[in-house]
């Protein structure tokens, strides 16, 4: 390694000396970068599929740190091969096994590694420093180094050095991804880039005088009121959301609280719960409205009859209220019955229940009943609901104390064809909403934790997650009620805010930040 570094250093010296001899060293922009990091190879950190599976005659393993499963009989078995059975058989075989098998559609969304028929459906995700092969004879690297592991691993991190008149001097910036560099190079040459996966303008903070000036994406759909014109609407029974412990009169009183919010209060609630701007819809012809509650806001979709997002700010929390029975969800009178979810769908359903995006026990200034409405409701698998609850009543408390308050935005994702983009809206029949494929969480706080999110004047920090909505925990090899795995599992499914935007048709952070700052925030991947 030292010898290789000395060789590279010598070559760079020759380049810089050549520029200086030609009097170009103060007018040429130079970029020094690597396309990836390296891991040290060792057969002691290799795992073999034959140790887990006896029958291996009908498939091969494309070996390495991102190993792939491929049927032998091609093209005949490429689509009919039992990938699900093999992945299940290779999962959770030994404690702390370095190999985790995945179907490509279940890999973290940040990888963008599913939307092509040439990508095999079966994958072996390896721990840092590990490789996989069918057997010991097929391991390619037992000495030296290799690359191709998950790019969030420290040893996979690349380098970037920019030097020249266009670059700022003595400046260290937060990590960014190599896909952003093409646009930067085009800006240095003052030419327009071809279409690419980078975000043009996200590296403007590296430059003294950026060539390209980005702007926010324009919304393609605007909200229209949901509220009924009737000042005293009667509770509806059409959605079968009645609760035995609540009389009609009690329900009317609860609804009066929701209907009494005036325009001045709405503006105040937007400043509180959308501190960095109301999310914008960048899908055409979306029908939605904003629903206001004192402790949270909903962007409610008439197309998918559930929230597009829920947003709220919490201060540092020491504890939360004990959860109340959620069977007492009532129909939101602000939403027409034709655009509301049927509550009775979840009664005695064998595989599905419902969850609440804003947990009632997080209400501070209003009763829990403000969150016990079907406009806050989403279909959830029971196992996922347990994880969702654990995050909100355990991890969120810890984060709120560390970060001095957080803005939380969460909502459903629909990506049934796993192309990394939001599905088109389906026509909903019978008031039964589609089941989301994922749920997203965006946690934003002030980088200077002496300030709360609402008071923050300086840079922000963000963590985003795209959580697969599945009916079991087979991915993490756990059973019972021990949810200590959740934090690590969420970290594995970390994402960029921009990944969330692609999968939801939403756009975030349109207020209080420059466009350049916004793009840095959206393209940041927490590692």
Provide structural commentary.
The chain has 527 residues and is α+β, with helices and mostly antiparallel strands. It has 3 domains: 2-33 and 159-206, no CATH class; 40-146, Gyrase A, domain 2; 248-523, Extracellular Endonuclease, subunit A (Extracellular Endonuclease, Chain A). It contains 9 helices and 21 strands. The chain has a 7-stranded antiparallel β-sheet. Strands 4-5-7-6 form a 4-stranded antiparallel β-sheet, covered by helices on one side. A two-stranded antiparallel sheet has the order 1-10. InterPro entries: Alkaline_phosphatase_core_sf, DNA/RNA_non-sp_Endonuclease_sf, Endo_G_ENPP1-like_dom, ENPP1-3/EXOG-like_nuc-like, His-Me_finger_sf, Phosphodiest/P_Trfase. One of its GO terms (molecular function) is nucleic acid binding. Residues 293-515 form the ENPP1-3/EXOG-like endonuclease/phosphodiesterase domain. One of its GO terms (biological process) is ATP metabolic process.
What order do the helices and strands come in, and which of them pair?
Blueprint: H1 2-21, E1 30-33, E2 39-40, E3 46-48, E4 59-62, E5 66-71, H2 83-90, E6 99-103, E7 122-126, E8 131-133, E9 145-146, E10 160-163, H3 181-189, H4 248-259, H5 263-273, E11 280-281, E12 288-293, E13 296-301, E14 306-314, E15 353-356, E16 377-380, H6 382-403, E17 406-413, E18 438-446, E19 460-468, H7 486-492, E20 494-495, H8 497-504, E21 506-507, H9 515-523
Parallel strand pairs: 3-8
Antiparallel strand pairs: 1-10, 2-9, 4-5, 5-7, 6-7, 11-21, 12-13, 13-14, 14-17, 15-16, 17-18, 18-19, 19-20
